[in-house]
């Protein structure tokens, strides 16, 4: 076509381009551009430049700016150029201003007038040029100036103009919805435009509108479906075909819209099934664009109300993607898999080896996408494998942005699914060690809070064991040479609060360690401050306990260090004083505390009180007597702030003083949690996770089997073994399945044709899929991969539930919190542990049990409520409602005798048993106790235990003695 | 309004040597940020091997790129968008360029970057694909060009014609028809769209 017509630039310009093209280095290029800028500056302000010349200067300005240099000196000339009468010149002017200016630039006001004039032009090309500029430049203030004309242009005879007018109106809607809210009906109208290009352009604004308000557009479902049908049936002009696909870009946009409209709407979705199915069939999966449409179909299917047939087609398409050699398709396959597992979790298992291949692929993009998928399919059975992999990857990369993201994901998963305390603490340690300075400070605060508050059980032993294991691992880690500041803060805080709590370590040992920290990281004032406060706590606890404080010489030095700090403060008076003042005050406080007697110290620094609320008497009522006295002595009465404006400062000062007094003078809590800095920050990962998390609700009905059995194990374990979030989660480690089941499944696959042999009740689904995969592939798969696959995809998906017991309700609630992105995991943690959550927990729990084993179960609960009215009040209250409905008095009577004696003895066990699903007969419970106490390396024992627990619905195995030990103690 | 997300945040054309051939920013970026973005992305993309994905993750966004001869076309999108579609939009653009310039090569874009901009403006507005029909785009651009041509004829002079002739020669030479063409120029004169894929 007319390409050669473009070569009308001057020799000078061509030389410029050529010399830049030949520049050997960036520096050389910069030099050339800078000299060009000088030339242009000089030339462009000369008087009477011919238009053609000026146009070239402007293009050269664009060139200079494109290469990253500042051409703002010439902006005004570009603006002037838009005023020109000739389209030739005007078009260049518009191009330049759209490239140069952002919508908030001052010069825009100078263009608005020209745009207004051009929009009225009878040459449609002029109008088009102006509309291009409108889309880029018109801002909120200038919308009204052009809006009437844009609306007029929606009915322009030329389709190119109508199309651009639509886009312009869409931009206005994006910038200021209120300014065009009365015009949105135009988009609907234009949907029926004769020109497919205009119709296609209308889909973009409609997509936005529907995203914001689905319900007002439900009536369009039929129209969209019929348009899509026509497009798919090639009713559009041939010109819209792209690589033999009929208007694929329009199809994709329509599928996106349908996905929105059909989400959670069965009726609307039903209208779409046929057309989406048709597209699945018609798509040419050999071309890239065909796959793009297929991918969009999968997205649509996973969003609308599920339809088994479509899900099947989607799964087929995904397996084609994953099996492809193209990395792009594998990537799309992984992404699509992530979308589909929300609806049908079992689909992941078919592709486990493909997923693992992607995970081990050298391509970082693919790897990261796979991590995203793993993140979405993490459950308690595979959390260890996944998080370990994530951490390994995290350590291996340098990209800070992604490192931060993956670190926060690790933390999130660890908090949600941690199988044991040790593992949790170790995982957090690893994350902090390697990405400590990248993770949100909030994560550190969250960890401290978690350690302080425990994990929500009423069981204090578990919490205190968590703390002592944290203390132990921190003392160990302190030996490492260089630790991130945030991590050190956590360590200091935990050591201060709980270092001496279990009596394992002496105060002097802990203080010695803390002093080492303060010394080793002497230039980090925050860490030092944490260390000093921790020291103060340790001493306070010691004094309160009536023990003699043996001050290490270094500690004495630490405490008296404040003089040194004071000097520093004075020296650096202008600079960073705040930090030093904090430190100084802490040092003073420490010294003051050490001088006090035990009683006073205890009230200042109660042990393990970090979670208690500090009550602040805002009215300062305790000072009333003092004030009365002073007034009687003739002092001035207090005048409220509103009544005197000039004395603001003084009053503030006084207020603060009182405040201080009211909170015992030492506000140790406030230092630890600088909340104000935290609130503004939102972990990026939580945003991304909004729709990734599998929604637990639909699972509930199928859960009854589990709920009745599982928690019995964990609740049992609770009495002896500390734990994190074990209860309510099937104790079925991924690893255990792969040793035996891979072998069995292999052997069975030889025997049976389809491999549908039942290997093990709970393993069937898993092994079957693996067999089919094996037989299909006929390729040797390395044992490591199989192992990994087994641990990732481990338990059959049926056993994995968002459990409904114990923490069950807290899990869904945390999902809910996550879906409101800005809320933090901090809040999640607090929700987990807050007592308010408990009643729904238990009720939740009660529901499925009612369905299944209610009669044998409820009386037991009820019984406990009767037996231990003091400890069990809350649970008794909760259960009595369900019990009242279902229990039969006979059975209850039966139970009142025997277990009463058995359990009354031991409060701990009883509280452990208070979890309702302790369904088994008394014999069961005693057996459990025996099992517990005799748990050891003995294989026979553990096999017996296996059998027992299996009988209770959990299927752990002896292949996994360590994990199992965790679980049973 | 953060509620609305552009489909495409920016378009970049970078040569294999890391030289910028075209930039179009649909989301606001300051000049400083732009330089940084280009530097980061060329470091990220130019080093990737041939068989890897055409997508890279970058600052929580996705950059879809495709290499044509010695030129990389990159578009930046949100992470949950359809990457394959963007890949095809890139290809669509290249096909339109190819049709317009007639066997487009990097040199055409180097010397006529403003034309590449005009064509891009007909294809994408405000970060959304606005015209899926190649024919329509070609027709619109041709209509504008014909105006330009007529305008030029009115002001045409001998010098102009001579300049054109000279430039044409230069292009021909660069395209490999002449004796002098450095390695860099040789790269630039490779056809973007291979004859066999046409």
Automatic annotation (TrEMBL), chain A:
A Pfam cross-reference name: Adaptin_N
A single GO cellular-component term from the record reads:
endomembrane system
| Coiled-coil regions listed in the entry | none
Keyword annotations for this protein, in alphabetical order, are: Golgi apparatus, Membrane, Protein transport, Transport
Q: Tell me where in or outside the cell this protein is found.
A: Endomembrane system
Q: Where are the transmembrane segments?
A: none
Stretches of Polar residues bias are at 750-767
Q: Which InterPro entries match?
A: Adaptor_Complx_Large_Subunit (IPR050840), AP4_complex_esu (IPR017109), ARM-like (IPR011989), ARM-type_fold (IPR016024), Clathrin/coatomer_adapt-like_N (IPR002553)
One GO BP annotation of this record: vesicle-mediated transport
Q: Which residues form the Clathrin/coatomer adaptor adaptin-like N-terminal domain?
A: 36-543
- Where is this chain primarily localised? membrane
Give the region (Disordered) as residue ranges: 733-845
Domain of life, per UniProt, equals Eukaryota
Query: Which residue intervals are annotated with compositional bias (Basic and acidic residues) in the record?
Result: 768-787
Similarity comment: family membership: Belongs to the adaptor complexes large subunit family.
Function of the molecule: Subunit of novel type of clathrin- or non-clathrin-associated protein coat involved in targeting proteins from the trans-Golgi network (TGN) to the endosomal-lysosomal system.
How does this chain assemble? Adaptor protein complex 4 (AP-4) is a heterotetramer composed of two large adaptins, a medium adaptin and a small adaptin.
Protein name as it appears in the record: AP-4 complex subunit epsilon
From TrEMBL, chain B:
Q: Name one GO cellular component term.
A: AP-1 adaptor complex
**Compartments reported by the entry:** Cytoplasmic vesicle, Clathrin-coated vesicle membrane; Golgi apparatus
User: From the UniProt record, which GO molecular function terms apply?
Assistant: clathrin adaptor activity
Q: How does it sit in the membrane?
A: Peripheral membrane protein
From which domain of life does this come?
Answer: Eukaryota
Keyword annotations:
Cytoplasmic vesicle, Golgi apparatus, Membrane, Protein transport, Signal, Transport
Q: Name one GO biological process term.
A: intracellular protein transport
Give the SUPFAM superfamilies listed for this entry: SNARE-like
The leader peptide range reads 1-22
Q: Which Gene3D superfamilies match?
A: 3.30.450.60
Please report the stretch or stretches of sequence annotated as the AP complex mu/sigma subunit domain.
7-146
Primary localisation category: membrane
Q: Subunit info?
A: Adaptor protein complex 1 (AP-1) is a heterotetramer composed of two large adaptins (gamma-type subunit and beta-type subunit), a medium adaptin (mu-type subunit) and a small adaptin (sigma-type subunit).
Q: Which family does it belong to?
A: Belongs to the adaptor complexes small subunit family.
Q: What does this protein do?
A: Subunit of clathrin-associated adaptor protein complex 1 that plays a role in protein sorting at the trans-Golgi network and early endosomes (TGN/EE). The AP complexes mediate the recruitment of clathrin to membranes and the recognition of sorting signals within the cytosolic tails of transmembrane cargo molecules.
Q: What is this protein called?
A: Adaptor AP-1 19 kDa protein
Species whose genome carries this gene? Gossypium anomalum
């Amino acid at each position: 076509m007319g390409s050669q017509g473009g070569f009308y630039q001057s020799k000078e310009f061509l030389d410029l381009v050529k010399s830049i093209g030949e520049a050997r280095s960036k520096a050389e290029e910069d030099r050339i551009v800078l000299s060009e800028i000088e030339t242009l500056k000089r030339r462009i302000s000369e008087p009477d430049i011919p238009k053609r010349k000026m146009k070239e200067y402007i293009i050269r300005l664009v060139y200079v700016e494109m290469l990253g240099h500042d051409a703002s000196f010439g902006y005004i000339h570009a603006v002037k150029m838009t005023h020109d009468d000739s389209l030739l010149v005007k078009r260049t002017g518009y191009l330049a201003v759209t490239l140069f200016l952002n919508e908030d630039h001052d010069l825009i006001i100078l263009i608005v007038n020209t745009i207004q004039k051009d929009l009225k032009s009878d040459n449609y090309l002029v109008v088009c040029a102006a509309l291009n500029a409108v889309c880029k430049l018109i801002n909120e203030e200038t919308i009204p100036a052009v809006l009437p004309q844009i609306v007029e242009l929606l009915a322009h005879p030329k389709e190119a103009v109508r199309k651009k007018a639509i886009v312009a109106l869409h931009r206005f809607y994006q910038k200021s919805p209120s300014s065009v809210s009365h015009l949105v009906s135009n988009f609907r109208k234009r949907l029926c435009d004769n020109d497919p290009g205009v119709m296609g352009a209308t889909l973009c604004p409609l997509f936005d509108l529907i995203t914001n308000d689905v319900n007002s557009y439900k009536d369009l479902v039929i129209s969209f479906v019929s348009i899509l049908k026509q497009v798919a049936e090639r009713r559009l002009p041939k010109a819209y075909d792209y690589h033999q696909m009929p208007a694929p870009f329009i199809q994709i946009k329509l599928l996106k819209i349908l996905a929105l409209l059909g989400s959670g709407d069965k009726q609307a979705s039903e209208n779409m099934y046929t057309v989406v199915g048709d597209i699945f069939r018609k798509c040419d999966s050999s071309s890239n664009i065909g796959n793009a449409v297929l991918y969009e179909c999968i997205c649509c299917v996973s969003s609308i109300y599920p339809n088994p047939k479509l899900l099947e087609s989607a799964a087929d398409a995904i397996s084609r993607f994953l099996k492809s050699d193209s990395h792009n398709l594998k990537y799309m396959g992984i992404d699509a898999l992530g979308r589909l597992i929300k609806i049908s979790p079992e689909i992941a298992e078919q592709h486990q080896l493909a997923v693992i291949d992607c995970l081990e692929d050298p391509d970082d993009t693919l790897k990261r996408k796979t991590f995203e998928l793993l993140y979405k399919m993490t459950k308690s059975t595979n959390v260890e494998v996944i998080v370990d992999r994530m951490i390994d990857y995290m350590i291996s990369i340098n990209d800070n942005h992604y490192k931060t993201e993956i670190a926060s994901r690790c933390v999130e998963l660890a908090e949600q699914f941690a199988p044991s305390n040790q593992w949790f603490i170790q995982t957090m340690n690893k994350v902090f060690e390697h990405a400590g300075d990248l993770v949100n400070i909030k994560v550190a605060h969250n960890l401290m809070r978690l350690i302080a508050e425990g994990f929500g059980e009423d069981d204090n032993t578990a919490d205190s064991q968590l703390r002592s294991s944290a203390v132990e691992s921190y003392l160990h880690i302190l030996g490492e040479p260089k630790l991130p500041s945030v991590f050190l803060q956590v360590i200091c805080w935990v050591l201060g609060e709980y270092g001496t709590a279990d009596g394992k370590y002496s105060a002097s040992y802990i203080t010695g360690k803390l002093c080492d920290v303060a010394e080793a990281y002497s230039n980090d004032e925050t860490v030092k401050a944490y260390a000093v406060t921790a020291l103060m706590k340790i001493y306070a606890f010691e004094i309160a306990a009536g023990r003699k404080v043996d001050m290490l010489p270094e500690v004495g030095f630490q405490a008296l260090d404040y003089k040194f700090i004071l000097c520093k403060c004075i020296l650096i008076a202008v600079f960073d004083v705040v930090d030093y003042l904090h430190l100084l005050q802490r040092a003073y406080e420490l010294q003051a505390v050490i001088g006090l007697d035990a009683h006073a110290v205890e009230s200042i620094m109660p042990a393990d009180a970090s979670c208690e609320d500090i009550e602040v008497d805002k009215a300062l009522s305790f000072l009333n007597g003092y004030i009365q006295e002073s007034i009687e002595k003739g002092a001035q009465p207090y005048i409220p702030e509103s009544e005197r404006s000039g004395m603001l400062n003084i009053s503030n000062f006084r207020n603060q003083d009182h405040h201080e007094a009211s909170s015992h003078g030492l506000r140790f809590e406030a230092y630890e949690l600088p909340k104000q800095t935290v609130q503004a920050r939102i972990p990026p990962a939580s945003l991304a996770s909004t729709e990734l998390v599998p929604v637990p609700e639909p699972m509930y009905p199928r859960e009854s089997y589990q709920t009745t059995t599982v928690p019995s194990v964990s609740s049992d374990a609770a009495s002896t073994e500390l734990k994190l979030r074990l209860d309510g989660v099937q104790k079925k480690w991924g690893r255990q399945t792969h040793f035996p089941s891979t072998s069995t499944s292999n052997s069975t696959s030889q025997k049976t044709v389809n491999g549908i042999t039942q290997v093990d009740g709970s393993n069937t689904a898993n092994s079957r899929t693996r067999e089919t995969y094996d037989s299909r592939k006929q390729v040797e798969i390395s044992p490591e991969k199989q192992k990994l696959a087994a641990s990732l995809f481990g338990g059959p998906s049926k056993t994995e539930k968002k459990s409904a017991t114990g923490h069950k309700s807290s899990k869904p609630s945390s999902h809910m919190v996550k879906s409101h992105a800005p809320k933090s995991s901090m809040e999640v943690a607090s929700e987990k542990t807050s007592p308010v959550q408990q009643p729904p927990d238990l009720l939740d729990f009660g529901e499925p049990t009612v369905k299944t084993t209610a009669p044998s179960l409820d009386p037991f609960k009820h019984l406990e409520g009767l037996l231990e009215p003091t400890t069990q009040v809350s649970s008794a209250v909760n259960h009595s409602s369900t019990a009242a409905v279902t229990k039969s008095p006979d059975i209850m009577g039966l139970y009142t005798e025997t277990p009463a004696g058995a359990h009354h003895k031991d409060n701990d066990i009883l509280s452990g048993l208070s979890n309702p699903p302790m369904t088994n007969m008394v014999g069961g419970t005693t057996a459990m106790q025996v099992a517990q106490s005799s748990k050891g390396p003995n294989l026979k024992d553990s096999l017996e235990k296996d059998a027992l627990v299996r009988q209770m619905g959990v299927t752990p195995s002896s292949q996994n003695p360590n994990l199992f030990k965790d679980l049973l103690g | 309004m953060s509620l609305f997300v552009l489909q495409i945040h920016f378009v970049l054309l970078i040569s294999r040597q890391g030289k910028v051939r075209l930039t179009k920013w649909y989301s606001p970026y300051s000049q400083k940020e732009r330089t940084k973005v280009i530097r980061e992305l060329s470091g990220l993309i130019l080093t990737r091997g041939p068989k890897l994905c055409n997508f890279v993750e970058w600052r929580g966004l996705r950059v879809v790129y495709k290499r044509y001869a010695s030129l990389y076309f990159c578009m930046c999108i949100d992470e949950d968008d359809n990457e394959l579609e963007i890949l095809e939009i890139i290809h669509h653009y290249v096909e339109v360029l190819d049709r317009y310039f007639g066997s487009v090569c990097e040199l055409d874009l180097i010397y006529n970057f403003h034309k590449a901009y005009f064509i891009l403006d007909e294809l994408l507005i405000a970060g959304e694909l606005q015209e899926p029909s190649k024919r329509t785009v070609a027709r619109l651009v041709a209509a504008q060009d014909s105006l330009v041509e007529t305008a030029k004829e009115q002001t045409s002079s001998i010098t102009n014609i001579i300049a054109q002739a000279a430039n044409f020669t230069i292009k021909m030479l660069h395209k490999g028809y002449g004796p002098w063409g450095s390695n860099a120029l040789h790269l630039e004169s490779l056809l973007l769209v291979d004859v066999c894929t046409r």
